[in-house]
Amino acid sequence: MNAKALTPNRGRQAAEPKPAAAAPAAPEQDSTQTIAAAITSAIIEHRLAPGAKLTEQKIAAIYGVSRTLVRQALFQLARDHLVTLEPARGAFVSQPSVEEAQQVFAVRRMLEQHLVEEFCDKATTADFRAMRAHLKLEQAVVGRVDVTGRTRLLGDFHVLMAERIGNAVLAQILSELISRCALITLMYQSSRAAQHSSDEHVAILKALESRDVKLAKTLMEAHLCETENSLLYHPRTSSADLTLALAAYAA
Ligand SMILES: [Zn+2]
After folding, report:
1. How many domains does the chain have?
2. Residue 196 sits in the same domain as residue 219
3. Ligand 1 mean position to 71 CA, how many Å?
4. N or C, which end of the chain is more exposed by having fewer CB within 10 Å?
5. Is 174 among the domain residues?
6. 226 C-alpha to ligand 1 centroid (Å)
7. Which of 97, 3, 81, 82 lies closest to 40 in space, CA to CA?
């Protein structure tokens, strides 16, 4: 959703003609992204456990960069709800509880029954076209290893439905709810479950296109239950040692 939001490209050089690929982005921005991506991978791959402390100084030493860059990376991760920043205590890998995830899904089930009804009622040809375009993208990405990207796209399907029919409040609430579970989804959703989830989106959209509100509601309810059940709520033990978790992968 907002991976770039925190890193304004203030360092972009205008002098060079742009090559087709690998344009020399501002090195600072590059490092921020690299560190953010490395920490994300360490979390997804269970090398860093929920609750692990992320010490700026240690991370800076591991990557040989300034603490400012590390701080920027941590800010970015906090925006994605993967990291929690605590005043005077520092940064930690977020720790969404199982209860919290279950509550989020329960609220989503309620809200999204309404969403389906409203969408069925209001959606225009253009809205369906936009949803189909999103699904195309989703299906292309879902099988790949880019776990963060696919998690985001799967969530965006729901948010986009609300946006398309102009319900900004619902879109915002859904987006927030989905983000709250991002860590759990990232860590515990298999790529098979992600593919399955996307296939369910296809079926939901099909029901909506035939304006079968009853079927669409049933499918949405089943989809949210399936998604919740596909997450394994059993965190494996991981390293609390930053050097062990990050250093070997820093190159
Ligand atoms: Zn979904």
Report:
1. 2
2. yes
3. 32
4. C
5. yes
6. 10
7. 82
Residue 45 backbone phi and psi in degrees, to 5: -85, 10
Cα 246 to Cα 186: distance, rounded to the nearest angstrom: 18
pLDDT tens by residue, 16-64: 343 444 444 456 778 898 999 889 888 877 788 889 999 999 999 999 9
- Are 169 and 188 part of one and the same domain? yes
Q: Do 226 and 103 sit in the same domain of this protein? A: yes
In a domain, 221, yes or no: yes
**Domain check: are 121 and 58 in the same one?**
no
Examine residue 5 and state whether it is found in any structural domain, yes or no: no
Residue 2: predicted pLDDT: 40
Q: What is the pLDDT of residues 59-116, one digit of tens each?
A: 999 999 999 999 999 999 998 788 999 999 999 998 887 788 888 899 999 999 999 9
Q: How far is the CA of 39 from the centre of ligand 1 (A)?
A: 26
What is the CATH number for 106?
A: 1.20.120.530
End-to-end CA distance of the chain: 27
- Å from CA of 157 to ligand 1 middle: 6
- How many angstroms does the Cα of residue 24 sit away from the middle of ligand 1? 36
pLDDT at 232: 62
154 C-alpha to center of ligand 1: Å? 6
Positive or negative, the Cα torsion across 80, 162, 151, 128? negative
> 134 alpha carbon to ligand 1 midpoint, in Å?
12
What residues make up the domain containing 212? Answer: 98-230
249 CA to centre of own chain: 22
Torsion over CA: 148, 229, 156, 91 (sign)? negative
